[in-house]
Amino acid sequence: MPHTGPHSPLPTSRTSGPQDRLSVDPDALFVYGTLQFPEVLHALIDRVPAHTPAQAPGWRVTALPERVYPGLVPGQQTAAGYLLTGLSPEEWRVLDAFEDPVYELRRLHLTDNRHGWAYVCNPEADTLDEDWSLEIFTAQHLPAYVDRCAAWRQRHEARQNQEQAS
Fold this sequence. Notes:
This protein is an alpha+beta fold and 166 residues long. The strands form 2 sheets. The chain has a 3-stranded antiparallel sheet, with no helix packed on it. A two-stranded antiparallel sheet has the order 4-5. Strand 2 and strand 3 form a beta hairpin. It has a single domain, classed as Gamma-glutamyl cyclotransferase-like (Hypothetical upf0131 protein ytfp, Roll). The chain has helices at 18-24, 38-45, 89-98, 134-140, 142-165; strands at 29-31, 50-63, 70-85, 103-109, 115-121. It holds the Pfam family GGACT. Residues 1-21 are annotated as: Disordered.
């Protein structure tokens, strides 16, 4: 996800990627942070996909240094969020492009025997010991973050249009 602070190091490899995702379960994305917000999804993909509550055992939603959005890291807790379904290939491409290099895509086992892909922190990512707060994000950052998402999308679409034109 876009941010104003320094980027974390790029991962050297991805555990899973678009090819793997599309061959196993192309439309289930476990979201635990800013992608839980309808406003953010609308800014990025113009809609809120079908979604149901979901939990990922053995994962923790952590604060990231100098960022308002969280990361998902292994932990003793159970991360709560939603499982988004029905994402189109184009929507996946937009979300893949949007995500910060601090993340890698990994298929997670959820508490109700479902699976979902999630953007989790790569092992080299800087994380904090504190949990990310949905309430603090909502109260202090959500409107500005939605604006940033909309601006990112405009830039992304302009780049896509330029690439297609050349």
